[in-house]
Amino acid sequence: MGGAVKGPVCDHVCWYAVDLVTPEGVAVDAVHRQLFWVDSGSDQIEVADLDGQNRRVLIHTDLVNPRAITVDPSSRTLFWTDWNRDAPKIESSSMDGLHRTVLVGDGLRLPNALTFDPIMQHLCWADAGTKRLECVSADGTDRQEVHSPLRYPFSLTTYNNHVYYTDWER
Known about the structure:
It is a single chain. Helix content is about 0%, strand content about 55%. By secondary structure, the chain is mainly β. The strands form five sheets. Strands 3-4-5-6 form a four-stranded antiparallel sheet, with no helix packed on it. A four-stranded antiparallel sheet has the order 7-8-9-10, with no helix packed on it. The radius of gyration is 16 Å and the shape is globular. It starts with a strand and ends with a strand.
């Protein structure tokens, strides 16, 4: 499965997984002590305990190019983006991979970054194709454009009612 690394960055033991093809997004559920990640090479979403135990594939069907992932520990919901060039989308499921649903399926091109704001209960993303930063409620309703135009957004996070993002071309 992987190995452990101990060093100046890790107060404890950090683990890493093997048998990955192209891991991209990663998210931590600190409440339930789980790590989630997407692998765009194997087209799947995996989970393991923070100590590396209990690794398993959660979702392995109908994924073309999963990119970003985030979690809402309070509702035990997982959110991710899929760059599928024919039908990009943002989906959700329970943290056990059940109850999968498409939250956003229209008006996307390259949903590159994703974050969940637990205070506002909004899911926000930056799309490198549409050059927009947008948000929806956790159930996929109330879609709003937050900022546009962007150049090539790559990552984002929220804190204290603010959205922070990186842009490759600025």
